[in-house]
Structures are given as structure tokens and as C-alpha cells.
Amino acid sequence: MIKFMVDSGSDYDVNEAKEKGIAFVPLSITFDNDTYKDGIEISRSEFYKRMREEDTFPKTAQPSPQAFLDVFEEAKANGDQIIGVMLSGGISGTYQSANIAKDMAEYDGIHLIDSKTAVYAIKIMVDYGMQLRDEGKTVDEIVEALEELKSRISINLAIDNLENLYKGGRLTKMQAGFGNFAKLKPVISIPEGTLIVKGKFIGRKKAIAGLVSYIEGMDLDERFPIYGIYSDGTENLDNFVKKVEEKGIKFNECYQIGPTIGTHVGPETFGFIAVEKAKN
Questions:
Q1: Which of the listed residues 150, 175, 205 is the one where a domain comes to its end?
Q2: Domain end: 87, 119, 150, which one?
């Protein structure tokens, strides 16, 4: 049987993953001396509450190879093929950790994909993979299709406050302070597996307008969902969704970003995930 595996950087709900038979391997989140399994031992609301109220910047850590090996050994014992769609290797060492476990398992039925993306973009990939499996596709056909799909998934996030980018080491204190003073709202994306700044806007209204222009400019593949995404607080997202839907573009769902990316982007971040059509 063909089965799927994700890490918590996918933001796949652990209960939904269980219902669908998807193996779920959590990253860890640490505040001071308190360490939690992401998606299992700490909820998103609890995570953002602590991040808002505490001075300590939370740290994330990739799963150990043993956590993946446990999944692989079970698949090996059952004779299952397993497709792991992992958080981008340019963001985390999770993909590397899974590959170490694959070598330890010594089993040819393990197929790992560096998604080159994060959060609900991985959910889109896995849900599509399960659809292909249910249509009778082989494991090699599914892997090939997902490898092709990942290059067409676009994540765009407008950062409302630069403090977390500074605390996470992605900006200097001076850069963050000046940016916040100027009401700078950068839009970040993950086009090749690493976070980049796609655009810079002054003020929330212009950031919303910028995101609207990005999604309007896409040649959307209507076979796939469009997701609105947010970190902590929905006011910015609500205003963005309203503007997008005025253009005749409808969101399938709106989801909250989990700790893996939420740690770096901070509160009131908002944006979208969508899939472009393949280029001929």
C-alpha cells in the first residue's frame, strides 16, 4: 500500500493526518526550558499567546532521525511504500534528518521529496498525491507528479511587524527598527526553497494591494485550492480576502500558520497559497 508522511512544518492538522492514515512527525518548539512537540503538545493559540507575552524568542528544532526511522520500520514491516513530503531543506534540517533515517532503514520503499516549500503548500501536495494514489497511479508516477507540482505552488506572506525577523537573525536591529518606524511591510515568498523578499510596501493598505496584484497576475490552476493564511490575528487577512474576492477570486479555506514559520514571521502576518498552471 502507498502511504504518506509529513512533518509538522506542513501545518497538517494531526487529527486530520491520523484520519487519512498520514504519518505525522513533529518538530519541537522550545520556550526557555519548556520543549513541546509541535502540533501535539502545544496548540497554535498557546504558541502565539506565549510568543506575544514572553520576551524569550521560541526556537524550533528538526525531528531526530529516530522519529522518522520509527515510521520507516513500520512501513518496512508491513511492506508499504511511503512517500514523505518534507519541509523545505532550505528552511530546516528536517529533510536531511529523514534521509539519514532512510539510510538506516535500508528499505527501498521509502521515497522522500524536498517540497521546497512549507505550511499548507505541503498539504496541497499530499492531498494531490493521495488523489493520484486513489486513481491507481504507481508510486513512481505519484513522486514524479509531486516533483513537478512543487515548482508551481506559490506562497506569499505580508509581514506586519519586523521584530520576529530581527529576533530570528534575518534582520539587524537597526533594519527592523527603521522598517517598523517607516511602516514597511515586506512580502516574502519561498520560490526555490528559501525565504526571499518578493516586494516591499509602505503600510498595510499597500501591502494588501500588492498581494492582490500578485494573485491577480497568476495563471491559476483551478484543479487546486487557494488558501488564505495568517499567523496570529485575522484582521489583515479578512481585509485581504475581501479585496481578492471583489476581483472574483474565491478562497477555498483560510488556515492559521503553525510555529515552524510563525516563529519567524510574527503576529498579524497574512497572505495566500495558490498553484499556477504548468507552462508549455
A1: 150
A2: 150
